[in-house]
Specification:
single chain, 167 residues, alpha/beta, Molybdenum Cofactor Biosythetic Enzyme, Chain A, two-stranded antiparallel sheet, 6 helices, globular
Length: 167
């Protein structure tokens, strides 16, 4: 299946130029291997409004099929990616985040600290991933078997989550 995707790296340090984005390129490679015909990447700081704006832009203006966020899903005070995602989604799709947490618990007890969510904005699937490249690769391997069917199902008419109106 061919699809379009976006990756949003959420990190104060990467956005501030103090660290290189390693998760974004790793996810881009995995998405291209999985059949993505195009992948765009963005970096935003750990700011709820900026994360939500980036998500909305990819869902309603660029209208990509899939957005994966990386970073900001833990329990630190600035980890607000789940809240920003909830601000944007129209419908929950919790199975993706639940599957990642369940499988990740087999690797590390720290998976219990994840507050990642997944849901649908318009006809775009959004999934929150952890911030480390290794965790992103593990998480992608967990969700990949269900992505094709999910994106096919979402291919119909959606709702513009910026206005909550059909488009």
């Amino acid at each position: 299946m061919s699809f379009t995707a976006a990756i949003i790296t959420v990190s104060d340090k990467v956005a501030g130029g103090k660290r290189e984005d390693e998760s974004g390129p790793a996810l881009e490679r995995l998405l291209l291997e999985a059949g993505a015909k195009s992948v765009v990447r963005a970096v935003v700081p750990d700011e709820r409004e900026q994360i939500a704006a980036a998500l909305r832009g990819h869902c309603t203006q660029r209208r990509v099929d899939l957005v994966i966020t990386t970073g900001g899903t833990g329990m630190a005070p600035r980890d607000v990616t789940p809240e920003a995602t909830r601000d944007v989604i129209d419908r929950d799709a919790p199975g993706f985040a639940e599957a990642v947490r369940a499988e990740s618990l087999r690797v590390t007890a720290r998976a219990m600290l994840s507050r990642a969510v997944s849901g649908i904005c318009a006809s775009t699937l959004i999934i929150n991933f952890p911030g480390s490249p290794m965790a992103c690769e593990e998480s992608f391997a967990i969700v990949r078997p269900a992505l094709g069917h999910a994106l096919e199902l979402l291919g119909g008419a959606g709702v513009d989550c910026a206005r909550k109106q059909p488009y």
